[in-house]
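Subject: Re: docking follow-up (magnesium ion)

Dear J.,

Thanks for your patience while I sorted out the input files. As discussed at Tuesday's group meeting, I've set up the holo structure prediction with magnesium ion included as the bound ligand rather than trying to dock it afterwards. The sequence and the ligand SMILES I used are pasted below, so you can double-check that they match what you have on your end before we go further.
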Amino acid sequence: MSDSHRRTLPEQDTIFALSSGASQKAGVAVIRISGPHADVVLRHLLSAQDVSDPDPELALPKARMASLRKLFGGISSTSVDAGAALVGNMKEILDQALVLRFPGPRSFTGEDVVELHVHGGLAVVSAVTNELMRLRMHPLAIPLRPAEKGEFTRRAFENDRMDLTEVEGLADLISAETTEQRRLALRQMGGNLRVLYDSWRAQIIKCMANVEAVIDFGDDVDDDALDAMAPLLRDLEAELSAHVQDNRRGEIVRSGVRVAIVGAPNAGKSSLLNALAKRPAAIVSSVAGTTRDVIEVHLDVAGVAVILSDTAGIREETEDAIEQIGIERAKQALADADLVLHVVDVRQTDGASMRAFSDTQSDSVGVVTVFNKTDLSSEEERQVAAATMQQLGRAKGSELWISCTTGAGMDAFQSAFETRVRELLWNNSSGTGHECDASPTAVITRARHRVHVENAIHSLRTFIHEFLEQNNLPLDIATEELRHAASELGQITGTIHTEDVLDIVFQDFCIGK
Ligand SMILES: Nc1nc2c(ncn2[C@@H]2O[C@H](COP(=O)(O)OP(=O)(O)OP(=O)(O)O)[C@@H](O)[C@H]2O)c(=O)[nH]1
Ligand SMILES: [Mg+2]
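The structure tokens for the complex came back this morning:
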């Protein structure tokens, strides 16, 4: 484990990759080159002559200024055959491109970076990348090679342009599919977690320095210095504890809210899934016990990623072994859910299934009761349904009434569903869509962060309890607990890291990022 990620590296290879999306029809493709030879490579591309050492006077674009340039490449046999007007060692024009230079360290990677914004066609991109491959074999032996997965970002990290949380934020931003995922990722990439963890770490290190001063001073523990430290550490411990008690909302925004549709057979669960997915994702039939497996669809619900699961109808008695397995899976989906949609045929609310279901659900999970088939029900049946809700102790009016067949009540259902999903994350049902922006607190987005923060809390508590309060530990051993807490926070940001951790973080990246 190294205490700093600044390494003395041998001179780095210069790397290149297509950094824009893989679509072959895009108007523009961006090829990125990073490393000490980025300008040399660019000079070769801008030189019309195939010479081993292009004119060093050849004007490169000014730093950070876009410049429209012709890119040249080696003479292809086809263009010679076609009688292209090539004279001597003249090269062929590959494309007319916007060229940008970002001399290090003020660049994404911290190295010299060149960006070539070429036309997006497959032939253009491969002509330019082939030319870069050809330069690898150049007599000057330019150490140039295609980039590996995540290598640009890894260099940015190694050159202190980003910490690990910002790297993770960037990975999340690239894969963000919903508004809230984008917002969360953008804030993390902007450094909100880095600032938080660095400031906590700095406070712990300051306390450590004070304790070490006491140790150096002699055997007599300076009670005043330690007394002054106690409230600071208690406050810090409280702050860290509040940080982990976040209902996992950052992790849920990132991975998606898990919503399970459960209920008795034939209640209309698959019909509801199809209505929400706006496609016939699940088979609907009048045969009770149609759905066996868990069927998942991914939705964007008011900017939040939702993984919606349709499940087998839960009933106590079934002879069918496969249906029994389906019921077990349904119960598992119920246990894993962040939110449950309990679908009930409004004409069958007095059965044992409603009660049985109430017993299986966990208290921490939100449950929305959805009475379906209102088109078939009588007023009396609806009153019985509402009365059953009250007997079960549910708040009056908390149930929703729909007909999957006619679509009645679906708008109200949709908006109540959106509110519940957002409430789950922010305890705020205003539905403005800006709750996150209004409270830009840094939230944990990965289990990796949570483990380290919990370890840091444990060490702080041990120091406070075993040393400051009980005086059970000698000072030098107690200090180790502070050192450990600081180290745990340093591992989140990558100030302290192992190669294994980096491999895990960077595995989310693809080539060109
Ligand atoms: N009239 C009416 N029929 C409905 C409504 N919703 C669903 N149905 C019908 O009820 C039957 C069962 O619907 P499904 O959606 O398959 O029910 P399910 O809960 O998924 O059933 P299982 O998978 O067997 O547990 C089908 O014939 C649907 O067409 C509704 O609101 N009104
Ligand atoms: Mg079904």
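A couple of observations from a first look. Confidence is low (pLDDT under 50) at residues 1-9, 77-87, 428-439. Residues 14-159 form a domain with the Gyrase A; domain 2 fold (CATH 3.30.1360.120).

Let me know if you'd like me to rerun anything.

Best regards,
T.
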